[in-house]
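Q: Given only this backbone (163 positions), what sequence would you predict?
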C-alpha cells in the first residue's frame, strides 16, 4: 500500500485541456458549458419572477373598483356604517356598527334588497330575510337619510361620490 502512495505522490499532475475551458488560460478556471448553464438558470429565474409579478397584478384597472356610496348614522354612542363597493351600481353591501347597545355579528355575509338610483340620489337597503341576524332598514334621499337599527332610528349623512 505504501508503494502505491509513493507512486501517486511522485507522479506529476496533468490537467486536462477541458479544465481551462475554451480560453486556454489557467487563471480562468471554468468550463464554458457550466457558464452557459448558469446563464440559462438565471434567465429562467428572472422569467419566473416576472411571471409571478404579472400574475399578482389585478386584472382590472386599479381605479375601477372602489366606494360607490357611503352612509354613516349616529345616535349617542351607537354608530352605523353602510358602504356600497364595486365597479358598478349598486355594488356589494358592507355593513358595520359599534356601540354599547349594538348587537354582535357585524360584517356578516347575507343577501340584501336594494333600491338604488344615483341620478335621483335615492337609496333603500335592507336584508332580504329576517334570518336572526341584526335587522336594519336604511332609507336615503339626497345627502341625508335614516336607518332603523337596534330598535332606534338613527339620522345620518350620505356620500354619493364614487372613489
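A: Predicted residues:
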Amino acid at each position: 500500500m505504501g508503494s502505491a502512495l509513493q507512486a501517486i505522490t511522485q507522479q506529476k499532475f496533468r490537467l486536462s485541456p477541458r479544465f481551462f475551458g475554451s480560453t486556454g488560460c489557467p487563471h480562468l478556471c471554468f468550463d464554458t458549458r457550466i457558464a452557459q448553464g448558469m446563464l440559462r438558470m438565471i434567465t429562467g429565474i428572472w422569467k419566473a419572477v416576472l411571471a409571478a409579478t404579472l400574475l399578482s397584478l389585478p386584472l382590472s384597472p386599479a381605479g375601477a373598483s372602489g366606494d360607490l356610496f357611503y352612509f354613516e348614522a349616529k345616535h349617542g354612542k351607537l354608530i352605523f356604517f353602510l358602504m356600497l363597493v364595486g365597479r358598478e351600481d349598486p355594488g356589494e353591501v358592507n355593513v358595520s356598527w359599534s356601540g354599547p347597545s349594538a348587537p354582535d355579528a357585524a360584517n356578516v355575509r347575507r343577501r340584501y334588497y336594494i333600491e338604488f338610483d344615483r341620478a335621483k340620489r335615492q337609496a333603500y337597503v335592507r336584508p332580504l330575510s329576517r334570518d336572526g341576524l341584526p335587522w336594519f332598514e336604511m332609507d336615503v334621499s339626497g345627502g341625508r337619510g335614516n336607518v332603523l337599527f337596534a330598535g332606534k332610528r338613527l339620522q345620518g349623512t350620505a356620500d354619493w361620490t364614487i372613489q
